[in-house]
Design a protein that fits this description.
Blueprint: H1 2-30, H2 33-40, H3 48-58, H4 64-76, H5 90-125, H6 130-144, H7 147-161, H8 176-207, H9 210-217, H10 222-233, H11 235-243, H12 246-252, H13 254-259, H14 265-274, H15 278-306
Helix pairs in contact: 1-4, 1-15, 2-3, 5-6, 5-8, 5-12, 6-8, 7-8, 11-15, 12-15, 14-15
Length: about 325
């Protein structure tokens, strides 16, 4: 296990280097430093002297090789410097936005996984009956509704009309759960249809296997077959689809954080893209890559835990 983890971490190094190089090259191709300077300077028509002064302050006046070295060093040391647009410390802003993003992502992840697996098992248990038909119809209806509709309707009904949840903002500590409740509920509803249908497919593929027919022939109850045999053997594809979604949940709650005014990493990334803040964008891209690598390694570890036939060698 230890040797496998060391190899995977070593494999991650060239991936991180490649992503960092690609980010740096795209930055100079799409948003040259002088263009970013014009965007971030307060003057409507900045003079060349003002632009040059801005480049000096942010280190963009140095040779390209020196900038690349500084770019790579800061990323791998996780010292992201200061924002190009606001001048605030990026590490401090990431630490401040990590808790709201992790809270919402964690609650959505665990509640969605539990609800989707439960509904999938329910549909597989009553396969071919009206229960399965209605559950499938509900999933199709939920899948047909776009994410934005869930957010707008949820805010209007549960926030404006019923006043059950706060509409915007966030507070630190335990109070954060009150502000995260509605975004989590809407995130759960938005992904319920697609996740349930996917897991139902995984379970139904196992239901028709030979070992299931053998268990039925021995008189094993259907509920025990589903929970002790079918669910265990369907765990591998379920793990693949769930664990790899963790990074996208953390950095991808852009819609929820934007609509609810939550100061998380998703809204921070959107603001940086809109303001052409390369210092922040490169930091968030690097963190996203780290999270995806960690998710892939965690997936392999979960494989070995779910199926003893799998060995990490």
């Amino acid at each position: 296990m230890i040797g496998y983890l060391i190899r995977r971490l070593l494999y991650a190094v060239p991936i991180l280097v490649g992503v960092s190089l690609a980010t740096f090259m795209l930055f100079y191709c799409v948003f040259p430093p002088r263009q970013i300077a014009r965007r971030n300077l307060s003057a409507k028509y900045p003079t060349p002297q003002q632009i040059d002064a801005w480049l000096v302050v942010h280190g963009y006046d140095k040779p390209l090789g020196a900038q690349l070295k500084k770019h790579m060093t800061e990323l791998f040391l996780l010292q992201f410097g200061k924002s190009d647009s606001t001048g605030e410390d990026i590490n401090a802003r990431i630490r401040a936005g990590a808790w709201p993003s992790f809270l919402i992502a964690g609650l959505i992840f665990f509640s969605s996984l539990a609800a989707q697996v439960f509904m999938a098992i329910w549909a597989a248990y009553f396969r071919g009956t009206y229960v399965d038909t209605w559950l499938t119809l509900l999933c199709v209806v939920l899948m047909s509704i776009t994410y934005i509709v869930f957010v707008i309707v949820g805010q209007y009904l549960l926030g404006n009309i019923l006043h059950l949840f706060p509409l915007a903002g966030f507070e630190s500590g335990i109070s954060g759960f009150r502000f995260a409740a509605l975004p989590v509920l809407l995130g759960l509803a938005a992904g319920l249809g697609s996740g349930t249908r996917l897991y139902r497919t995984f379970l139904l593929e196992e239901v028709n296997q030979d070992y299931v027919r053998t268990a039925r022939a021995k008189g094993v109850p259907e509920s025990r077959i589903l929970f002790r045999h079918v669910l265990k053997n369907a765990a591998i594809p379920i793990i693949t689809s769930t664990v790899l979604s963790i990074p996208s949940l953390i950095l991808g709650n852009i819609v929820l954080e934007s609509f609810f005014g939550i100061p998380g990493l998703g809204s921070y990334t959107v603001d940086a893209i809109n303001s052409q803040d390369f210092a922040v964008v490169r930091a968030m891209v690097f963190l996203g890559t780290l999270l995806y690598i960690a998710g892939a390694i965690l997936t392999d570890i979960c494989y070995a835990l779910a199926d003893p036939r799998i060995r990490l060698e």
